[in-house]
Structures are given as C-alpha cells and as structure tokens.
Fold this sequence. Notes:
By secondary structure, the chain is mainly alpha-helical. The protein has helices at 4-27, 37-70, 76-82, 85-88, 91-102, 107-114, 125-149, 153-161, 166-194, 198-203, 212-221, 226-252, 271-299, 308-332, 338-345. Helix 7 (125-149) crosses helix 9 and helix 11 (212-221) packs antiparallel against helix 12.
Amino acid sequence: MAPRFVQISTVALICSFVLLPLWAVWRQADGPTSLGPADWSALCFTILQAGLSALLSTLSAVPLARALARAQFWGRATVIRLMGAPFILPVIVAILGLIAVFGQNGWLNTGLRSLGFGGFSIYGLQGVLLAHVFFNLPLATRMILLGWATIPQERLRLGQSLDLRGFARFRLIEFPMLMTVLPPAAAVIFVICLSSFTVALALGGGPKSTTLELAIYQAFRFDFDFAKAALLGLVQLGLSASAAVFALGFAWGHQLGIGLDRPIALGRQSTLQKYLDGVVIGVALLFLGLPLLLVLGNGLGSVTSLPAAVWMAALRSVLIALGATALCMLLSLSLLNRSGEAIATLGITVSPLV
C-alpha cells in the first residue's frame, strides 16, 4: 500500500487532469450559456446508445465468457489474447472492416439480397450499437472471464458434491459472481460509449444520431462557443461519474469470499454443452475476426509502399504509448483500493475534445 501522502497527491493530480481542462475552456467563454433543444436531443441519444451498447455488450459477453471458462482446447489462451484486437485497433480502421461486412455492398447484404431478403442498413442507431458491441465485447468478455476465475474452488467442489447442474448451478454459484462483475463492466463500457465520436460521426447517419461528443465538436469547430462546450463536457463528466459510483457501490456489497483455491477439475460436460460452447465461440470469432481479416487482406499488400512519414508517425505513436503506459502504471500503484478505483475511472469520463 502506497503512503498516504502519495495517494492524496495522485488523487489530486488525476482530479486536476479532469477538472482543469473544463475550467480552462470555461474561462475562454464570453458569458453563461444553456442547453438548447439540439443539445438535449444529443444528450438523450447519447444516454440511449451508451446504455444499449453497455447492455448488449455485457449480455453477449456472458455466454462467450462462460463457454471460454468451460472449454479446453488447443490455442484457447491465444484466442483469449487475440480477442483484445478490436479494442486496441484504430476506430476508423475497424469501421472500414465493419462496412466491408455489414455495409450496403458488404458480405451480409449481398448474401441477404441473393436470398431474396431486404438489406441491412449499418447507418443509424443500429450501426452505432453494432460498432460499440464489436469494440467492447472483448473487453466485457475478459472482465467476466476474470470473474469466473475468482469463484472459490471450494464452491465448485461443493456444487459437484451436491450434484448441482443446469440452472441450479448457475443460480447458486455463477449468478453471485455475475452480480459482482457485470455492473462494473457495464459502467466502464457505458462511460466509453458516452465519449463516442468517430463511431457516431461515421455510422450515425444524420443529425438524429448526434452524441454529446459531436455536440462538443460542433460547439468548438462551427459555433466557437466555449461556454457550451464546457457545459456539455461537464454534463458528460457528471453522467460518467454517476455510472462509476453506481457500479462500484453495487459491487461493494456482493463479495464472493475467499478460498484455498486448490485446483479442481471441472465437471464433465455433455456433448450438447460442448457443441453449444463451440458454436458460441465460433460465432464470436467470426463476428470479431472477419472485419479484421478483410482490413488486413486489403492493406497488407500496401505496407511496403507506405511513405517514410507514416513510419515516423507510427514510431512516434509507439513512443507516446510506452510513455503513457509507464506513467499510468506508476500512478495506478497508489490507487489499489475501492476509492482509488472510483478516482481512476475519472480518467475516461472527461471529453477528449475538452
């Protein structure tokens, strides 16, 4: 545990990183402002798409994490590692891959039209949700998978001795863990989707799909209204902080306890269970991997022809990322508790544009 002085200094530093940009933007304003009808519409759409994205991502991750926790196959560890690729991929690159699969001339619509069905439009709320699930499903799966690993082995052993199966095993052993893991996972994804900019800009499909981040950009770029930009940033910060506090407070009272954690072999699975787990994992890999493979296939042949400026930009990005990673790891050592977890969440609550 870090000394008290170091913890207080770290908390003050993080809070200054979050609040000082808002204060600086507000100082540039000409006077007070208020939210107009378009801003309220952007706020409602932002909450709607962020809430649905968090809900769909976490609910979709539950069967996938459960299948990965039970399945044992060659390359399982590699599959789990590679599932993080969409989350770290540049957003616009991943969107190009999604358009290649789900766009008007993508694989899905081409197949649907050949079968006589109507096409699927990737633009609008459905496209924003699709992209957010694509990015956040691996994150939610990793978080829930770690939750499965925290179940005390004694509970699994007791469940096997009592011959708990099916719904009884899920309700008594797995459900308490999900109640601990799902709220924080949903809150993190909700906060990430609140600051969605590129996804809403590329796949929103019009003014009806404007998010708070797009409204902040419009206030900066077109209206030159710093007061409104700061106000919108403050609203976004308040929403994100509320979601983080709710999730942490909910998870506080749902602890799994501890055990000796002696390894235990999982119960034998039926052929049907193994088949269903394989289908879930296969569908997830197809959904996450096909857009990435299309982008990789289209761009791999042009890597050698990239100009030197691109390679210098890539090197600069790597150096910045390494420095930021080292700084984040250093600061996180002072926040290894529940209150520190809440403070650390503030880093992703502030608008990147602000």
